[in-house]
Hints:
By secondary structure, this protein is mainly beta. Helices cover 5% and strands 57% of the residues. It has a single domain, classed as TonB-dependent receptor, beta-barrel domain (Maltoporin, Chain A, Beta Barrel). The strands form five sheets. It has a 22-stranded antiparallel beta barrel. A five-stranded mixed beta sheet has the order 3-8-9-6-7. It has a two-stranded antiparallel ribbon with strand order 1-2.
Amino acid sequence: MSSSVLRRANLAFPPLAIALSVSAAFSPLSFAQTPADQSLTPVLVTASRTAQKAGDVLSDNLVISAEEIQQSGQSSLIDLLQRKRGIEIARNGGAGSSSTLYMRGSSGKQVVLLIDGVRSVSATTGEPSWSSIPLSQIDRIEVVFGPMSSMYGADAVGGVIQVFTKKGAGAPRVTASAGAGTYGTKEYSLGVAGSTDGDHKIRYSFNASQEEATGFNATVPLVGSGYSKDKDGYAKNSISGQLAWELAKGQELGASFLQSHGNSQYDSGSPAYDARSIGDVGVYSVYSRNQITSNWGSFFQVSKAYDKQNSYTSTGTSSINSDSTLVSWQNDIKIGTDLLQVITEHRKEAAVTNLPIDRERTTKSLALAYQLQRGAHLGSISTRYDDNSTYGSNVTGSLGYGYHISKVLRVSGSIGTSFRAPTFNELYYTGYGNPNVQPEKGKNAEVGIYYDDGKSDFSVAFYRNRVTNMIITQRPCSMTGIGSCAYNVNEALLTGLSVGGGRRIGDFRLYGSLDLQDPKDKTKNTLLERRARYHGTLGVDYVNEKFSAGADIGFSGSRFSNSENTQPLGGYALLNLNATYNLSNDWQLFARWNNVLDKDYVLARGYNTPGSNGLLGVRYGFK
């Protein structure tokens, strides 16, 4: 790829025309994630920390099934999520490079990522390392929109994304895949899963994967940038596993883990030096799930997560490592058709770097939640108290109500509060950190209507999320009068309408989504950086016993690279194709072709994006 080309697209999609086309033909991606031949109602765990039918979940949500992950042909979690409603991304180059995810206009620090119930985040930057999470290890993804601090504590302002790694069941089964594509891309995966028979069943699943690419030139020449005229590739190795032992009916012990190691090249301003970012992400947990009485269930979990990011440049080495340990005990008590939940947690976070910000902090939490169902009426109320050793205590809450107009049509509404904790960088980084910084506060209200009759489904959700006490970089620093520092100054108002839809017609499934939003910095009266006023997807899938194929167009309006709105980023529309052919019961050929029309576009100022690119591969044992 030529390093002198900065791809930009300035395609203008009238938002009203898009809205009319989506609402006229399709229904929501939030409930249209399962393939046409799957009739089972999706079940969500993330919204209430217990299994619920999707039709009874009051929070706006979407589910990405194993079948959809497989059919998409994507190999990156961030690329898969980019095609979903309510989600935007920014990425500093190609696959393997630093990425940020925005939900409903909220910042990357206001979104929680869970891996099998364990939070994965850097305590120093405040964001998950999205590019480190291997999609090949994931069996299922749940996305819940809106404030979730009353269930998960700090940072769940815009929503929660939980990925579930692969589980074992039934006879032993081996899976494998291999693929190769554009930019020297090579991908391999191998797994084994199954379970034993008898009264003391053991379920197991172990998976490994490797990815690599020679890549393309990630940056473009800008004043003050670290541009180098070379290719920026990456390599990533990942392993995951789950083991569960059923001691007796309703009594289970288990453990799970995921570990990923990435090595990516980037430009640091010295063409003669091979600058690299080496990152490690891991989550480990052990748990005991016990049905103590017929109406009392207990889930006790001890987990550890770490995020290590080390950068090597011609001027030196930067090491930013953090880890956290969580002890959690959740009690679910059935009261007739209702459910009372009592959750206690103790979390310890630590940062160890080569910078003077080595610190640790602890959070003690108590949460109460009550879910009720009275005929067609659904209700939920929850509250949580978090006491942090650094920034003090915070109380959050949520109240929701829903009504089933019919078995296939539901309306719901909710209000909730949330907060975002200051990062270790914002508190302690030399010359920038401010130990007086306090958490950001969010207040959200939303209403929605959801329809799903098994063939057609449709959803519309309107939300209004006011975020105060926002942490920004203030210049000059009010404490010293020079330089810059973190400070609680700004206020944001995130409002929007999220529409989605899907309809099955024979072997075809039509789907689409549209987000019309106004993510405003109320202090400056500007759009929040890198967030568009509209974005969405239009697509069609075809699935039969032998062959499946899909096409989708992802589009976004223009955005700005800075909070002053002086650096515009053009809108874009990308056409993507995918296909799978079943050679036999065990063997499949798969292919994907992204950015088919080779459109020029920008996700982050100063960074290139992939041109037309594809991947061709073969799978064994996935059907």
